[in-house]
Amino acid sequence: MVKLKQKLTYSLNRNNFRASHFRRRLAYNDALPQVSFLGFISGVAAALIIVAFRSLFEIPLGYWLPGGTAESFENLNPVWHFFLPIIGGLLIGLWLMFFTPDKRKTGVAHVMDRMAYHQGRMPFKNTLAQLIGGALGILTGQSGGREGPAVHLGSAVSSQIGSFFHLPNNSVRLMVGCGTAGAIAASFNTPMAGVIFAMEVVMLEYSIMGFTPVIIAAVTATLLHNYLYGAEMAFMAPEISMVSMSEMPLILVYGVILGAMAALFTKTLTSMQNFSTQPVLARMLIAGTFTGTLAYFVPQVMGMGTDSILMAIEGQYALGLLIALALAKLFATAISVGLGMPIGVIGPTLLMGACAGSALGHISSYVLDGPTSDAGFYAMLGMGAMMSAVLQAPLAALIALMELTRNPSIILPGMATIVIANISCSYVFKQDSVFVEVLRKQGLNYQANPITQALNHQGVTSLMHVDISHHQNEDVAGYLTAIERGLNWLVINKHSGSEQPNDEVYHLIHQSQIILDKGSPAGLIEAAGFPATRFGFCSSRATLKEAWDLCKRRDYQQLLITDIDDRIIGVLPVEEILQYTQKD
Asked: Bigger pLDDT: 571 or 12?
């Protein structure tokens, strides 16, 4: 029995050592094998949560809707076109009443907020609000997509795995990016677009250390999702190419028009946030009623709209319906999301762009002499331009357009339209990414710079000094022994026992400071030089950015780094962080 206990203790200690070593290694910005493993785990988690989320609404809708698919809301009785979104608004409002205002924040903007200000830690209650609220929204035909909830859920489950295993915050942030990529990739079967969206919109960076795990997550999520749920594309677009280069000037003009539409969408959505202090039930009922009223006249506005995108590309909608659907989708989605409904905006931007582009294609046949491209070609250009301008993510939009249409002929005119739409939306109409504008409306100055990114990439344990010795106040012999062993830092506990770390109980002394009577504990403590040498405590999970902010806020010169069990494991002087930023 004793031997068995010893073996179990040895095995437990060995596993704890391995886990501690793994966490410590993740703090470095060259831990490629370790972060690649995290990318794989995040991809698996994202795929599983997306399968669960889609099952919540696609299975019931497949049985209930007349067409047997989750997109055939237009086949319902017109009475349901009006009342179903209202019922949905009521149910969503009642559900969100269980949460405090800060726990109702959902979607991509919430993920960006947590990345910028909370080191990627995603609260469980917000995730729960998103899971059920998003499913209710899609079930009841609200004008929104599944990709916003998918990004939230994929990033949240990855973040919560990282937090559960006490991984350093730089790794948790990376897992959020991996979860985002996996969610987009699995939702649309577009792994490349998932990678670029995560890097361009959420992580705001391009680096080998970031790309590798994010690519692994996107590939893993796509393969697992396709195995469990099927490998179907959102829609199969026909192969259409541009007829003549003489259309390019008009295509550039259309880019400006689409940029103006994107600006109108963003402005409408952020304006609705002026009512965020109103009761959530009233806001959801207003959103549902507005969508229901529009759906009574334009039923195609209901749902995610992937079937309507294909209809617009195939030219099955008349010019009047295309314009009506584009505007109805724009206002229904902007007002619903702006009022706080937990649904996505990326899918609706694709439908708005497809309808607006197809309508402009019809107009082209009247404007230009000679043969013109099919209206479906302009619809595809509109999809990429609208998505790019709304998100201010041109590369993600271009990759998504290529993967969704499988049409290489779209690349050149697509790039031109996307760039013009982006420029007109941001510089002519002064609208940034819809997610950034939402955060600004909430009083958050969302921005990223190279130094901040560099500090967020690396954990505090990567720069800390481990040549540290722990002693009680009276341990004079221990002080001298530590100095003889060449240990540069002494941590002196003024009181015996296991007090929680705080600067009233502990003193931090550098070897060079010990210049008084080495036989006197009081002399040693006096040599620590309060307040000349101010120090604080910092978790080993923190990033260098968190450590730097702490030092600036409290005017600390050194930080004692504590492990997950509150043991002091190292010292990080603020000079080390400064040197790191100058090196980068």
From this structure: 571
Alpha-carbon gap, residue 250 to 248, rounded angstroms: 5
- What sign does the CA torsion over 276, 303, 188, 257 have? negative
Among 175, 180, 177, 153, which Cα is nearest to 162's? 175
Can you list the positions of beta strands (E) in 463-513?
468-472, 489-493, 506-510
In a domain, 149, yes or no: yes
pLDDT band at 533 (very low <50, low <70, confident <90, very high): low
Let me know whether 377 and 469 are in one domain: no
pTM: 0.88
Same domain, 332 and 423: yes
**Calpha distance 533→528 (Å, rounded):** 7
Closest CA to 94 of 277, 283, 275, 344: 283
Q: Where does a domain end: 441, 472, 493?
A: 441
Kindly give the pairing relationship between strand 506-510 and strand 535-539.
unpaired
How many structural domains comprise the chain? 3
| Token duo for residue 259 | 């940029």
Are both 35 and 184 inside the same structural domain? yes
* DSSP 8-state class, residue 243: S
109 lies in which domain range?
2-236
Same domain? For 527 and 431 the reply is: no
What is the SS3 assignment for 302? coil
- Position 364 scores a pLDDT of 84
Beta strands 489-493; 506-510: pairing state: antiparallel
The H-or-E segment that residue 24 falls in is helix 2-26
| Same domain, residue pair 137 and 219 | yes
Establish if 447 belongs to a structural domain. Answer: no
Residue 524 confidence (pLDDT): 55
Q: Which of 27, 378, 40 is nearest to 216 (CA)?
A: 40
For residue 339, the model assigns a pLDDT of 96
CATH assignment at residue 462: 3.10.580.10
Same domain for 285 and 183: no
Q: How far apart are CA 513 and CA 532, in angstroms?
A: 11
Quote the tokens at residue 250: 């008009």
Cα 75 from Cα 403, distance rounded (Å): 29
Token match 């829609």: residue?
235
CA 402/CA 202 separation, integer angstroms:
21
Question: In what order do the strands lie in the sheet containing 468-472?
Answer: 468-472, 489-493, 506-510
CA distance 528 to 305: 67
Same domain? For 257 and 281 the reply is yes
Per the CB < 8 A criterion, the answer to whether 157 and 46 are in contact is yes
- Calpha distance 452→377 (Å, rounded): 42
CB neighbours (10 Å) of residue 271? 13
Nearest C-alpha neighbor of 378 from the set 326, 307, 423, 333: 326
Whether 277 is in a domain gets the answer yes
What distance in Å separates the CA atoms of residue 373 and residue 242, rounded to the nearest whole number?
5
For residue 450, being part of any structural domain is answered with no
Q: Which amino acid is at 282?
A: A
Which of 212, 199, 202, 192 lies closest to 151 in space, CA to CA?
Answer: 202
